[in-house]
Amino acid sequence: MSATRRLQKELGDLKGCGVRAYENVECDETNLLKWTVLLLPDKEPYNKGAFKVGITFPVDYPFKPPKIAFETKIYHPNVDEEGKFCLPIVTTENWKPATKTEQVMMALLSLINEPEPNHPIRADVAEEFQKDHKKFMKTAEEHTRKNAEKRPE
Amino acid sequence: MSSEDEIQMDDSDSDQGDLDDECLSDDDGIALESHDQNNSEYRENAVPDNEVLNHDSLEIEMKKTIADVQAVLQTKSGMCRILLHKYKWNKESLLERFYENPDTTTFLIDAQVIPRHTESVPSGDSECDICCIVGPLSGLACNHRACTACWKSYLTNKIVDAGQSEIECMAANCKLLIEDEKVMTYITDPNVIASYRRLIVASYVETNRLLKWCPGVDCGKAVKVSHCEPRLVVCSCGSRFCFSCGNDWHEPVNCRLLKLWMKKCSDDSETSNWINANTKECPKCMITIEKDGGCNHMTCKNTACRFEFCWMCLGPWEPHGSSWYNCNRFDDSVAKTARDAQEVSRANLQRYLFYYNRYMGHQQSLRLEGKLYATVKSKMEQMQTLSMSWIEVQFLRKAVDVLSECRRTLMFTYAFAFYLQRDNNSIIFETNQKDLEMETEQLSGFLERDLDSENLVTLKQKVQDKYRYVEHRRKILLDHCAEGAEQDIWMFNE
Fold it and tell me: Keyword Zinc-finger, does the record have it (chain B) (predicted)?
């Protein structure tokens, strides 16, 4: 598999990147193509919890983009109930083989920290975000407390 | 009609002049809707003056255009191809823009054929950014480098899986398009090379406003015209179709209404329910698109279009402002309108079924009457054994030709009539339609039933009189529709 070396390097780079928000990455020892990153957003209302993000690399990585989805439920205008979201840099059209997982995580983190209500996936959540921000913050915090993982010490 | 005889085959030189003139006068690259209205001079009775080009002659034409541009720009032919692609193969508008631009380098940078920045590179072996293996690297003019194996995998992937003929550099933010010469140095598999050449020609045809693939099954040829407009074109495989929309030639109804109509007609079946629920048309090029992910940010896959839009409101993605919410907010007045519409829809359904049944009826007749060719063939042979010459019996074949044309026209008159608002003009139209339909049925009756019951001389007289008259009625109907379109008298409900 041509991807092995690249994935090993990327895995090492991500673990040692020093960015707390996404350096907690686990990889199944028997399957280098499946990673789980513990995403730690630093902005309210998500900064009280941790969110598991599953990354599945295709066999012909890096020539095809990885598939990424939240495994932890998150109440966010840009993430749907199944954990899917739209991140331009990992779409098939825009994907570049030189893009590193660390860059993808950076982009995902900034999407979670700064929702884009003008490009929503969940229109109802986006509307609440814009029209009744207080209520949105309350629901999202509640949701985070109930569903998110515990943040590592 | 013997219009097929008039097609020029692979005659790449003779039309070049016309083509250039056309490009000069119209460099926007956008086919306008308004020519729905002036199709009268391109009536099917006129000789179709389109060229038919196969894969090889398309490649020759393409290379010729590239060579013309290359002579002016003095750059690689692969770069010229990418430039021409960006200008929708409108050579004149490309060159005009090139001459307008004071700085050739900026022009080429903007077109993504030469890099904006060139990164300095260490010499010797280094680690490939893509596979992380140390070895000799090579790259593009932008100096983004990778090992040969990675370039090869990347390009093969783009060509075979994504079907792209314009491929960007592998580096994350580099928009440089890789020129053909470079692509060819990395790909070695003859199948991939063949695919790439096919894709280049396909992209040439699909972006070029004056070319259209023949919709005929397994035909693979393209039709070339000198003006882009809805008109009848004829391919050497025998397909007769509308240049603008690729459907059967559909006079008197225009492309837009035909598309609406066909969509409506197929709405009954399960498939079309699915199409209705899962697809939308690209707001720019009207190609039907299936959404296969959660993201509402759509990019049209049509190489000539690549429009980015919002699935929800179908507006362009770029200027998506905060007003997005208008497209999903529940609106009381809209809801009331929807309720009223539901009541009307019962009546509308009845009306629709009326037109649909007649449309389908003629379509079925058209199919069944195809068998008549076999019947008249044996009749013609029989007549030749009884005193008539070959030329004298051709009227039977001609009669079946006329019958088919009338069926097709009648079929499309029902699509036209479905959208037509009632007024005095529509009444004239309906009278013409009635006459044509009645006479067509009589002609069909002659050919299906009376072939054996008449003596040959009276049969010939009757059939000839009838088909001439039917042909005349058809012309009257189509002329009336075309004139109406020219004077903009037709009012349509959509």
Answer: yes
pLDDT 10s digits, B347-371: 666 677 788 888 888 998 888 888 8
Chain B residue with minimum CA distance to A99: B172
Both B98 and B27 in one domain: the answer is yes
The CA-atom distances, in angstroms, between B271 and each of B20, B53, B283, B349, B354 are: 44, 34, 22, 19, 22
How far is A51 from chain B, CA to nearest CA, in Å?
Answer: 20
Distance from CA of B307 to the nearest CA of A (A): 12
Return the SS3 of B478. helix
Q: Which of A85, A118, A129, A132 to mutate to test the interface with B (most CBs of B within 10 A)?
A: A118
Same domain? B50 vs B155: no
Q: What is the mean pLDDT of chain B?
A: 79
Q: What is the CATH number of the domain that holds B303?
A: 1.20.120.1750
Side chain identity at residue B96, one-letter code: E
Is a pLDDT exceeding 80 seen at residue B420? yes
Mean pLDDT, range B55-74, rounded to an integer: 91
Q: Is the pLDDT of residue B191 over 90?
A: yes
Contact A119 B297 (CB under 8 A): yes
Residue B297 vs residue B169, higher pLDDT: B169
Provide the strand spans (E) within A25-126.
Answer: 25-27, 34-39, 51-56, 67-70
Tokens 């074109």, residue located: B233
Per-residue pLDDT at B471: 93
Mutation target vs A (from B127, B132, B144; most A CBs, 10 A cutoff): B132
pLDDT for B26: 40
**A3 contact residues in B (CB cutoff 8 A):** 131
Q: Helices (DSSP H) in B369-452: which residue ranges?
A: 372-385, 390-419, 424-449
Helix, strand, or coil here: B328? coil
pLDDT at B2 over 70: no
A interface test, pick of B170, B302, B303, B318 with most A CB neighbours within 10 Å: B170
Q: Is B153's Cβ below 8 Å from some Cβ in A? A: yes
Interface of A with B (CB under 8 A): 2-3, 5-6, 8-9, 60, 62-64, 80, 82, 84-86, 88-89, 91-93, 96-99, 103, 118-121, 123, 126-127, 130
Q: How far apart are CA B340 and CA B237, in angstroms?
A: 50
Encode pLDDT of B100-134 as tens digits: 876 778 888 887 788 877 777 777 788 888 888 88
Residue in B153, B162, B328 nearest the CB of A2: B153
Let me know whether B422 and B482 are in one domain: yes
Which tokens hold the place of B122? Answer: 């260490």
- Looking at domain A3-147, which CATH architecture does it have? Roll (3.10)
User: Is residue B346 predicted with pLDDT exceeding 60?
Assistant: no
Q: Which two tokens stand for residue B330?
A: 């529940």
